[in-house]
Design goal:
144 residues; transmembrane helix; DUF6691; Membrane protein
Length: 144
């Protein structure tokens, strides 16, 4: 059942990205281009997402188990540290350069956009590099 729920959630998310136009990098870049003809539609999509997510997170904080019975797993980190800030800057720079963030990139890749495949390949490479660096960091910490 969890795999089906994850699939249906991803399907709804992907359809929402397609219907809102957020899988189109030109739309995202139009939002980020404050000097040109600014496209405010991404702000409305984000606002809608926040309006849906905020009550759901408030409810989730009061529960110990999800609706389908799995243990509730909410983020525990609350500190804003150097790694968070640097990671956010790199994520934002990549988003601004390519017009994609991970979710819309996967949707666009599935729709056959060649640029999205390149972005997804770079994203996977970045994730692999991060994993390798984290493992090396943990190994150094254990031997020190």
């Amino acid at each position: 059942m969890p795999a089906l729920t994850a699939f249906l959630s991803g399907l709804v998310f992907g359809l929402g990205l397609l219907l809102s136009g957020m899988a189109d990098p030109a739309k995202v870049l139009g939002f980020l281009d404050l000097a040109g003809p600014w496209d405010s539609s991404l702000a409305f999509v984000m606002g809608g997402a926040i309006a849906v997510a905020a009550p759901a997170f408030a409810l989730a904080r009061r529960r110990s188990h999800a609706l389908l019975g799995a243990a509730m797993q909410l983020p525990q980190a609350t500190r804003i540290d150097r790694r968070l800030v640097l990671g956010s800057l790199v994520f934002g720079a990549g988003w601004g350069l390519a017009g994609f963030c991970p979710g819309p990139a996967l949707v666009s890749a599935a729709a056959g956009y060649r640029e999205a495949w390149l972005f997804v390949a770079a994203m996977v490479a970045g994730m692999a590099l991060f994993s390798w660096l984290e493992n090396a960091r943990h190994r150094r910490a254990q031997t020190a």
